[in-house]
Structure formats: structure tokens, C-alpha cells
């Protein structure tokens, strides 16, 4: 639309167009950065390989990174692509006539236990029995919904809200193992500092043995790189660290402060800090 056309709009038409433009700008992205593309590639590999029968445990994925780096945004973008692919390949309805829901997303709270997790899954499906029943009954109803709707991906967001090293954390860890064994889904967990909370525990301590049943079958990913968060140095310590990037080869040679093998912090290509004197 040209400026002349915009000026020619009536008051209500201009207001409607401005509203749609604000909504469009507010919902830009996510931008497919090299880190996002790498994370999605790993997720596709893991989920497409999780075709085991129901009596076999399937691998899980945990996206762990600092706050504000786009963990949930990256995972929801992948979940949307996965949902569309499944609907395009399998159709909108199952063979029994139920609506196909390839992805189930559940957000956790600070005191989530087994019953709360089951109820949250039933809330997603709008099950009429979500507000009554025991923990086992809610779990069986959730399993019935997952089987009926042929869910293949279960996203557990804000997993760091759990108190992993307390009673509720152990209960939920056991419950996650039950889901991995009985549900025909791939668990995709998102949180902050999951390693510090014991999600990837190998059972080296007395209390970590229970946590290891989840940690040993979980692949760790990151919203800012493969299996790690990229460290950086502040200007106070002499400049920012070189950021990992697949497009480093396009940078001018004169601006490179280190090579792929000589970066002192990440051992990856980078751009020097030009803000420090």
C-alpha cells in the first residue's frame, strides 16, 4: 500500500489496518538462526527414531538453557511443524473417528505432583473427568486420551519449577518413567538449570539413583547450541567471548580474533569485542 492509498483510507479502515499491522509485527518469527536449525534437526532425528512398541521405553529430550534465550519459542515452533506434518501425512482424524492431536503441551507449576501432572494433561484435552478421581484414575484417563488422539509428542514446559530433590520431584521422576514406558509419546522437557536440579543425574549419590532412571534416557539440548549453553566474557574481563555461528566463514578476515581451534573460551569461530578500548 502506497502513502497515497494509506492517506485515502477512512478513519475506521485505517484503524483496522493499523491494528492488523501491530499484530503482525508483534508476532514476527521465530527467525531460523543456525542454533534454532540445529536444535530442530536434533529433535527431528530423536522423535522420528522413537517408533518403539508400547512396552519399550523411548528416549526423551530436555532443552536446557538460560532464561530469555527462546527455549519455549523454539520448542513451540518445532511442535507446530511436527503437528502440521502429522496432520498432512495421517489426516485430521484417526481410524476410529477421533480428532488427531499429534502434540500435547503441558505447563508445570512450582508444586506439581503426579496428580497435578495428570490433571494438566486432561485439561489440555478438555476431559470432563479432570476434576475428580485418584492419581491412578487420572493417569489412566490421560493415557486413554493420548491413545485415542494418537499423540506422539508430549511437551512439558517450565520443568525447572519442580523441586526435584524433594518428595514431589522424585514422584514426578517416577511418573515420567511411567509415561515413557506406557505412553506412545516422546517426552520433550523444557526448563532452566535442569542439570543443577538433577534431571541428568547418573545415580552417583544415594538420592540420585531414582533420578537416574530419567536422566540416563534423556538427550540434553540447548536453545543456543548443541548440548550446551555458550559462555561469554563481559567487557570487564576484556571483551565478549566469541559466539558459535555456522556463518563465521562469511565474516571478513580482518575482524576475526581467533580461529575455530584457538578460541580461548569456546574453541569455535567468533567475532571479537569491538566495544572495549
Describe the structure.
By secondary structure, the protein is α/β, with parallel strands linked by helices. It folds into 2 domains: 34-221, Rossmann fold; 236-277, no CATH class. 39% of the residues lie in helices and 9% in strands. It has a 5-stranded parallel beta sheet, sandwiched between helices. Helix 5 (114-125) packs parallel to helix 6 and helix 7 (167-182) packs parallel to helix 8 (208-215).
> Can you tell me the CATH class of the largest domain?
Alpha Beta
- What percent of the residues sit in helical stretches (DSSP H or I)? 25-40%
Report strand %: 5-15%
- Could you spell the SSE succession in H and E letters? HHHEHEHHEHEHE
Strand order of the largest sheet: 2-3-4-1-5
| Number of helices, counting only DSSP H or I runs of 4 residues or more | 8
Amino acid at each position: 500500500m502506497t502513502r497515497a492509498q494509506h492517506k485515502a483510507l477512512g478513519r475506521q479502515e485505517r484503524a483496522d489496518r493499523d491494528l492488523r499491522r501491530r499484530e503482525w509485527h508483534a508476532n514476527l518469527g521465530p527467525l531460523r538462526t543456525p542454533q534454532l536449525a540445529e536444535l530442530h534437526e536434533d529433535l527431528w532425528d530423536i522423535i522420528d527414531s522413537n517408533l518403539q512398541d508400547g512396552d519399550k521405553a523411548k528416549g526423551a529430550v530436555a532443552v536446557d538453557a538460560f532464561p530469555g534465550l527462546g527455549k519455549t519459542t523454539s520448542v513451540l515452533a518445532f511442535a507446530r511443524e511436527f503437528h502440521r506434518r502429522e496432520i498432512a501425512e495421517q489426516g485430521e482424524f484417526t481410524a476410529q473417528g477421533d480428532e488427531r492431536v499429534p502434540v500435547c503441551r503441558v505447563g508445570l507449576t512450582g508444586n506439581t505432583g503426579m496428580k497435578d501432572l495428570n490433571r494438566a494433561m486432561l485439561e489440555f484435552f478438555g476431559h470432563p473427568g479432570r476434576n475428580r478421581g485418584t492419581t491412578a484414575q487420572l493417569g489412566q484417563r490421560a493415557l486413554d486420551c493420548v491413545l485415542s488422539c494418537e499423540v506422539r509428542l508430549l511437551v512439558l514446559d517450565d520443568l525447572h519449577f519442580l523441586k526435584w530433590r524433594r518428595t514431589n520431584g522424585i514422584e514426578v521422576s517416577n511418573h515420567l518413567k511411567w509415561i515413557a514406558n506406557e505412553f506412545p509419546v516422546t517426552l520433550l522437557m523444557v526448563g532452566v538449570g535442569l542439570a543443577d536440579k538433577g534431571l541428568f543425574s547418573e545415580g552417583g549419590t544415594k538420592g540420585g539413583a531414582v533420578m537416574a532412571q530419567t536422566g540416563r534416557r534423556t538427550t540434553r539440548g540447548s536453545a543456543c547450541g548443541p548440548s550446551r549453553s555458550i559462555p561469554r566474557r563481559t567487557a570487564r574481563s576484556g571483551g565478549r567471548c566469541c559466539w558459535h555461528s555456522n556463518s563465521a566463514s562469511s565474516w571478513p578476515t580482518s575482524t576475526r580474533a581467533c580461529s575455530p581451534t584457538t578460541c580461548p573460551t569456546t574453541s569455535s569461530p567468533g567475532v571479537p569485542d569491538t566495544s572495549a578500548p
